[in-house]
Amino acid sequence: MKFIKLLSIVFFLVASISSCKKDNDNPPVTPASIEGVWVGKFGNGNAAPSSFFSFNFKANGVLEELTQTGEVKGVGTWDIENNLIDGYTINILAPVGNKYSVIGSYNASVKKILGNWGFGNSVTDGGMWEMAKK
Q: Which of these, 119, 59, 67, 60, lies nearest to 89 by C-alpha position?
């Protein structure tokens, strides 16, 4: 009797797990849907994003960091692979020599790119960032 009871519990669990439908909160992002100006915030370390941050994702993988007035502050490159948006070594125009990198993923439920940034070629040792399309 215990065996039949245990078998029915296992069958119920397998049936309930296999019948669950997963919603995709992060549909694939295409270059055409990402291109344009995005505005948001970044944070340092574990701090919540609170400082102004803006990118202009341009055609052919050109990435510009913008100031609050829309002036180009830094330049780099970007691409999308496996639904991840990579920004490679963004060079700040002044002072010369400051570089950072970003990685992010578009979250359809909040309509934002959420990601991490880091110093130089790292994408993990700087902090978090978030942006919404302008």
A: 119
pLDDT tens series, the chain, 134 aa: 444 433 334 344 344 444 454 555 556 777 778 999 999 999 999 999 999 999 999 999 999 999 999 999 999 999 988 778 998 878 888 777 789 999 999 888 899 999 999 999 999 999 999 999 99
How much is the pTM? 0.76
On whether the CB atoms of residues 35 and 57 are closer than 8 A, the answer is: yes
d(Cα 126, Cα 122) in Å, to the nearest integer? 8
CATH number of the domain enclosing 49:
2.40.160.90
